Amino acid sequence: MSVAKKEYKRVTVKSLVEMKQNGEKISMLTSYDYSMAKIVDAAQVDVILVGDSASNVIAGHETTLPITLDQMIYHASSVVRAAKRALVVVDIPFGSYQSDSKEALRSAIRIMKESGAHAVKVEGGVEIKDSVKRILQAGIPVMGHLGLTPQSIYKFGTYTVRAKEEREAAKLKKDAKMLEELGCFGIVLEKIPAQLAQEVAESISIPVIGIGAGGGVDGQVLVVHDLLGMTHEFNPRFLRRYMNLYEEMSNAISQYVEDVKTSDFPNENEQY
Ligand code: KIV
After folding, report:
1. 233: annotated active-site residue
2. Is the peptide bond before 266 cis (omega within 30 degrees of 0)?
3. Cβ of 21: how many Cβ atoms within 10 Å?
4. Which one from 24, 123, 180, 190 is the annotated catalytic residue?
5. Which candidate, 142, 75, 82, places its Cα nearest to that of 115?
6. Residue among 215, 170, 213 at smallest CA distance from 188
7. What is the pLDDT of residues 69-104, one digit of tens each?
8. Residues 6+ apart with CB under 8 A from 188
9. What is the C-alpha R_g of the chain?
């Protein structure tokens, strides 16, 4: 269904709720650096997520756990300098909000103050209720993240679909309601059954952004390197690749190597 889109010069947390009310789907993509964020922002993506997936995609770690608050702030400040229209949301990394709510607030304040971002995202439900509450009380917009929460990968054991069983699905619904009632402006639902995700989206007034959560939610998020086909070894069912940049970049770089080796580069027009 195509919906007449309202123009947003600058997307805010309020705009996202309005988009949900108007039935306009919300687009969200990750970025971790200035150059990529400039392209993503110019393409009118509504929300740029400075995800802790930078730990995997940029730093090459196996999980999102090792990335630090300082590193997230560095990535976020680069993205903020590029984003003229999109709302910039930053993941609070593992270990920077779970131990107590004061630490959570300190971390959120550092992100907002030192990067200039517009909002933070945290993973979990009732377990982090006090932290979410305290951050919100300081006037910092918070986005929740339920379902497959990669910071808890060692508890889950695998990256398979979450909440297939009734008990986990019921907890997820309760957590989503709680996050809405606390005042979060949106929730990411990762890798859960489409039917459950749709039920959650229909039961709360704040936007639900899915990744591997089907089409019945209010918007979609992907890791931009996956969408562009740069991370060619990652092939989950939910991923639609719009390019095969891995191959295109490899070919271009191999050609460059060849051109240097054969003294084809630089030619007469490429020197002073
Ligand atoms: O860190 C990240 O990129 C995320 C998305 C997968 C939602 O949290």
Report:
1. no
2. yes
3. 11
4. 190
5. 75
6. 213
7. 999 999 999 999 999 999 999 999 999 999 999 999
8. 121, 143, 144, 145, 146, 147, 208, 209, 210, 211, 221
9. 20
DSSP designation for 116: -
Residues 192 and 199: beta-carbon distance below 8 Å = no
Q: What is the pTM of this model?
A: 0.97
DSSP assignment of 225-269? HHHTTSSTT---TTPPPS--HHHHHHHHHHHHHHHHHTT-SS-GG
Mutate to test the pocket of ligand 1, among 28, 47, 52, 120 (most ligand atoms within 8 A of CB): 52
Is residue 239 within 8 Å of 226, Cβ to Cβ? yes
How many angstroms separate the CA atoms of 84 and 103, rounded?
30
119 contacts 141 by C-beta, under 8 angstroms: yes
Percent helix, strand, coil in the chain, to 5, is 45, 15, 40
CA of 6 to the centre of ligand 1 (A): 27
Quickly tell me which residue has 């910039």 as its tokens: 88
Instruction: Judge whether 91 and 120 are in contact, CB under 8 Å.
Output: yes
**Going by DSSP bridges, is the β-strand pair 119-121/47-50 parallel, antiparallel, or unpaired?**
unpaired
CA angle 120, 46, 72 (to 5 degrees): 30
How would DSSP label each residue in 143-179? EEEEES-GGGHHHH-S-SPP--SHHHHHHHHHHHHHH
Query: What average pLDDT does the structure give for the chain?
Result: 97
